[in-house]
Design a protein that fits this description.
Layout (H helix, E strand, L loop, with lengths): L1 H13 L24 E3 L8 H4 L2 H8 L7 E6 L5 H6 L6 E5 L5 H12 L4 E6 L4 H13 L4 E4 L1 E3 L9 H12 L4 E5 L7 E5 L2 E4 L4 E4 L8 E5 L4 E8 L9 E8 L4 E6 L10 E7 L6 E10 L7 E7 L28 E6 L16 E3 L5 E3 L4 E4 L17 H18 L5 H10 L20 H13 L2
Parallel strand pairs: 2-4, 2-5, 3-4, 5-7, 7-18, 18-21
Antiparallel strand pairs: 1-6, 8-17, 9-10, 10-16, 11-16, 12-15, 12-17, 13-14, 13-16, 19-20
Length: 463
């Protein structure tokens, strides 16, 4: 009954003239595979151009910093074409704990191998859910990996507090104090929204539409034929103890219908989470409108945070939901990890439009800010393309292994470094690209292997 009443009300409002204006290749998927759209991978005899840009070639060729004696673990979707990459001379030996599906792991390993060719490489597929991912982290850490690099995001982890994935990584790093964890900032800057709840139009007893501002009670967007839009909403109620109830509605004003909803019930025991997936199955472009509805009293404030994925930002008609600030969440928000954003290869190495930015807002258990991302590295770089993987390799998924490779180089030359000593050297000697010092777009800047090595050498000589 609730769904029917809401749909009728939304049709009445949004169809009136007054309306305000991962990557897994299909060839590797088993026949019974069902994609979990709350998990997303952040995704390029070729050597990454990033080797020159981060100056890792300098310390490798002059000082012999090749990663020798350092074990590096990668977590990604899979290494299905690992043997092909090895046959092409792009990779040496890799210890595979779980192969997975797809080849983003293969591409990430190739980048690390380019930078630190003597590092011992390991791989574990993320496995398809958060528990298997946590298992992969533990396996690699227990196997002696001094560096673990992943490129995964879990959209059913809290945006505004630490979830169980973040908690697990924190505990693993406590157990293995010499391990350095490298992850991506994410590719979600271009379609992100975070604002306080604002009561708008009432559509029935204790049902209120969110007012996005600037005259928008709904966000209009155009879906091309075959587009599948994914929308995730969360708010600042405790995870598992949601006090307020929100729903997502996607309407088609031309057809006069509600085409998709997410109406999870939050009754002080649920998660503050709504997740809508809709695919445009008609053979023409389709204009739809996205709205947020609150059920119950509408006075108590909340912070709403929403991500729209799988469509180009230019398909959304308003900039209200195009705010890159504070678009980092999950284990990438941990202070204990190295969080990597992506920059363009071409000078002046501007931030990639989709590279998620900080700072990070944490609301629970108490309000705080975290200064992420930490550092940047290049994206859209060359890899072998084994398994028909896209070349150049896009996204922060390509940036993070550059940093992992440089860390392997530094640890092979200075094996007694603590985690804090190494990250301090990386951050203090990065090539500053934004505002002086740390900034929420570039972090401390572009990783610079030569300056970091020199600083550590001077430190060693001063002992």
């Amino acid at each position: 009954m609730r769904a029917a009443l809401l749909c009728m009300a939304l049709v009445f409002i949004f169809f009136s003239p007054c309306q305000g204006s991962t990557i897994t290749p299909d060839s590797y998927l088993p026949s019974d595979f069902t994609e979990d759209t709350t998990i997303v991978s952040c995704v390029g005899t070729l050597k990454t151009e990033g080797d020159l840009l981060v100056r890792s070639n300098g310390i490798r060729e002059v000082f012999g910093a090749t990663g020798k004696g350092i074990r590096v673990g990668v977590i990604g979707n899979g290494v299905m074409s690992l043997e092909l990459s090895q046959a092409m001379g792009e990779l040496g030996q890799v210890t595979v704990f779980e192969r997975g599906t797809g080849d983003e792991g293969t591409a990430m390993l190739e980048i690390i191998h380019d930078i630190a060719p003597d590092a011992e490489l390991c791989f574990h597929a993320y496995g398809g859910d958060k528990d298997q991912f946590k298992h992969a982290v533990s396996v690699l850490a227990d196997a002696g990996c001094r560096i673990i690099c992943d490129d995964l995001y879990f959209f059913k982890q809290p945006f505004l507090e630490d979830g169980d994935v973040a908690d697990h990584i924190r505990e693993v790093l406590k157990k293995h104090p010499d391990c350095i964890y490298v992850t991506v900032s994410g590719n979600f800057a271009s379609l992100h929204y975070q604002k306080p709840w604002k009561p708008g139009i009432s559509i029935g007893y204790e049902r209120t539409i969110h007012d996005f501002g600037e005259g928008y009670s709904a966000i209009p967007m155009t879906l091309l034929p075959g587009d599948e839009v994914i929308i995730t909403l969360q708010w600042d109620d405790p995870w598992g103890y949601a006090l307020h109830d929100y729903d997502l509605f996607l309407t088609d004003p031309n057809r006069g219908e509600v085409v998709a909803t997410s109406m999870n019930i939050q009754d002080e025991t649920g998660e503050p989470f709504e997740h809508l997936v809709f695919k445009n199955m008609i053979n023409e472009s389709r204009r739809v409108s996205l709205s947020i509805v609150r059920n119950g009293e509408n006075v108590t404030p909340n912070i709403l945070e929403m991500y729209i994925r799988n469509i180009d930002a230019r398909q959304v008609e308003t900039d209200i939901v195009k705010d890159p600030a504070d678009s980092i969440f999950g284990h990438a928000a941990l202070e204990e990890v190295v969080t990597v954003g992506s920059v363009r290869i071409e000078a002046p190495h501007l931030i990639s439009p989709d590279s998620s930015q900080g700072p990070v807002t944490i609301q629970i258990p108490e309000p705080s800010r975290r200064w992420k991302p930490d550092i940047c590295a290049p994206t859209n770089v060359q890899v072998s393309g084994a398994g028909s993987f896209p070349v150049p390799f896009p996204g922060t998924s390509a940036a993070a292994p550059h940093v992992a490779g440089v860390i392997a180089q530094l640890l092979s030359s200075f094996p007694d470094l603590t985690r804090n000593e190494l990250t301090e050297a990386l951050y203090e000697n990065a090539f500053d690209l934004g505002e002086p010092g740390w900034d929420p777009v570039y972090g401390y800047g572009l990783v610079d292997a030569v300056k970091s090595f020199q600083a550590l050498m001077e430190r060693k000589n001063s002992w």
